[in-house]
Structure formats: structure tokens, C-alpha cells
Amino acid sequence: KIDNIYLTGEFLNFPNFFDTAQNFFPNQRILLGDPKMGLKIDEQRFVPPDGRQDKTPYSIYFTNTIGVALRAISDTGSDQGINLLPDKLKEGFASKRNALLVAILSILMTVLTLVAGTIFAFQYQSLVYDRLHLETQKSSVERLLYGTRYQQIRDGIIQFNEEVESLTKIDQTLFSTPDLVSKIKEQIPSGVEITSIKFIDSELEVGITGIAKSRSDLLVTQANFEKAEFVEEVIAPISNFDEREELSFLFEIKLQFTELKQYGSSSSAK
Description:
By secondary structure, the chain is α+β, with helices and mostly antiparallel strands. It folds into 3 domains: 4-85, no CATH class; 87-173; 177-259, General secretion pathway protein M, EpsM (Gyrase A, domain 2). Helix content is 44%, strand content 16%. The chain has 4 helices and 6 strands. The chain has helices at residues 17-24, 87-173, 177-186, 215-227, and strands at residues 4-7, 29-32, 192-200, 205-214, 231-235, 245-255. Strands 3-4-6-5 form a 4-stranded antiparallel sheet, covered by helices on one side. A two-stranded parallel ribbon has the order 1-2. Helix 1 (17-24) links the parallel strand 1 (4-7) and strand 2 (29-32).
């Protein structure tokens, strides 16, 4: 009794071969061969017809490559079955499988390389941005420090120039008061007494008031001032000579600045 019908060979080339097989074999189970299963063949039995006469040339039944089994003859999962794939074809399948694995690995390597490159590029750009940000902050701090230092130096220079200008002004406009008073006293004779000395710095003048015992003493005093080197001009009002004795007088003396000792000089200095 036949229970199973396995479709192989030329029958697989027919259109609607499965339905046709069911029509021809309604009481049997129709199965397809599985190329993954194998069938052990005694190679000594497959000899050419003109070979040894004591062996049957079974190879004539397997000359068509379409006859490769598409389903296992046995459902037990054993290695028995029809597998007439030539060695070259097996090698071709293995090569294709290896090529597919290599291609998959290449794709994975490419993807990993792209991911690593993207991460590296992102990190590099991040580092570049951080470096530029730090350089900008450094430049700002340096400009701030340099600007502050420049302002300090500028203020110091301005202050120094002001001090020099003040000292120059003092040196050029101020004179030694004790020395001037000493020179004024040297011009006063014994019959004249000074009651006050008034300095007019803006005009570089000195106002001298006093009392002279006689006109002659007053005239000597006026003559002494007119001859003095530190005096540029003596202004003596005529009213100084209204009286004959005990004359109150006023002299306005314009000083010769170049003949005066500088500010801070002692009257005893030579």
C-alpha cells in the first residue's frame, strides 16, 4: 500500500503540478521534497551503462537536476532523504553564504564606522566650540585686565603730569618770603620803622607801610629800594612827604622775580 507521494523531477515542471498530483493520487498524501535533507547514495552502484555489468546504472534516474528533492522523504528529521546537489553547487551555495556574511559584516562595519565618525565629529566640533568659547573668555579677561591696567597707568601719568606742572608753577611763580623780608629790612635805615608788609602775589608786588622820623630818612629809604636788584619799580605817593617829622608812608614795590630766591630757600643761604 502506498501512503505518501513525493513530488520530484520533471513533474515539478508541469503547471499546477500539485493539484494535478492530487487528482492522480486522491488517496495518498502529496509531499514535496526538501533540498536541506540528504540521501546517502552508494556511489559504486552509479556507474556508466558501459561499465561493470554486474551493477545497475541507477544514475540514469537522476540526470535531471530539477529532480532535487524539495521535501524530505522521511518526516523523522533524520539525515536520510534525497539530496542530489552536486559538490560544485554546494560550494557555490557556501560561497554565496560566505559572501552574504562578508557583505553583512561589511555593512555592519560601515555602519559602525559611520556612527563612530559621527560621534568623533560631534565631539571634535564640541571641543572646537569649547576651545573658541574659552579663548573668547580669555580674550575678554585680557582686554578687561589690559584696559584696567591702561586706565591705571593713564591716571598715574596724568597725576604725575599734574604734579610736575604744579611743581613747575611753584618753581616759576613762588619765591622765598623769608629771604625777601630780609632784603627789605636791609634797605630800611635806622630812622624808619616798618609797620606792615602786604604781599600781592598776582601782581608780584609788595606794599610796605611804616613811619619815618624825617623826610631825609624817607628819601634814603626810597632811594635804597630803587637801587636794589630785586626791585623793578618803586611807587611812592607824594602824600608820603606831607609832614616834616614822623611821616607815615606807603611804598608799592614791584619785584624783579629773577632776582628773588626760589621757594623754600633760606634767607641765610648763599
